[in-house]
Design a protein that fits this description.
Elements (H helix, E strand, L loop, with lengths): L17 E5 L7 E4 L31 E5 L5 E10 L2 E10 L2 H4 L5 E7 L2 E7 L8 E10 L3 E11 L7 E10 L6 H17 L11
Antiparallel strand pairs: 1-4, 2-3, 3-10, 4-9, 5-8, 5-10, 6-7, 6-9
Length: 206
């Protein structure tokens, strides 16, 4: 069971999440449907985003929606706090860089933290657009308490790069797949690391 509420944004909005944003140009983060050719806020400015096809340990189905960060000159945080008992938790999420944003002149950065563990920190520049990348790890919670999951988007001048996020999860226990499946996932992570110069996948202790 996913301990994050609405971790795959299937309510079609940010129910269960807290949003704080500074978006001078407008266009705050929204939830968009997959494969939509619509402009913002009903889509990614006309670019249909394919469903998340990354190797993920998420218990959630891919579904129909994902979170979209696109504002120029923005500083946005989407977060959720979950109480966790001491123990091991499998954590992760998926990210996609659209072609439109990648081709824009302005850069943007993304930071993803789940259950207090930083899993990703990279820029649109230097990433590979048009493919879903999954970031995962295991959080070893030593002390029961509230732990934050957050996605932070900072963008430069217009037109800036953008990100799509989906299938964020916290699963009790070490839910890493069987060795053969996990080996395939590690190959995927390795390719992602080569594609995203500044990205990092971390197995860490919270």
């Amino acid at each position: 069971m996913n301990l994050l509420a609405n971790g795959s944004f299937e309510t079609g909005d940010f129910t269960g999440w807290s949003y704080a944003g500074v978006t001078p140009s407008g266009a705050p983060a929204v939830v968009i449907p997959y494969n939509s050719p619509a402009g913002y806020p009903g889509g990614a400015f006309g670019e249909p985003i394919p469903p998340d096809d990354s190797a993920s340990a998420s218990p959630d189905a891919v579904g129909d929606f994902a979170a979209y960060f696109v504002a120029d000159g923005a500083n946005e945080v989407l977060s959720q706090t979950v109480f966790l008992d001491a123990g091991l938790y499998t954590i992760g999420f998926s990210v996609y860089v659209p072609f439109n944003g990648f081709n824009n002149s302005g850069d943007a950065s993304f930071t993803g933290t789940v259950a207090g563990v930083n899993l990703a920190n990279f820029n649109v520049d230097g990433s590979t657009p048009g493919e879903w990348v999954h970031f995962a790890g295991v959080a070893n919670i030593a002390v029961a308490g509230n732990y934050d999951t957050s996605f932070i988007y900072n963008s430069g001048p217009a037109p800036a790069g953008d990100f799509v996020v989906d299938r964020a999860y916290i699963v009790a226990g070490n839910a890493i797949p069987e060795p053969g499946t996990w080996a395939l996932m590690l190959l995927g992570f390795g390719g992602a690391g080569a594609a995203l110069r500044a990205s990092r996948r971390r197995m860490a202790t919270a």
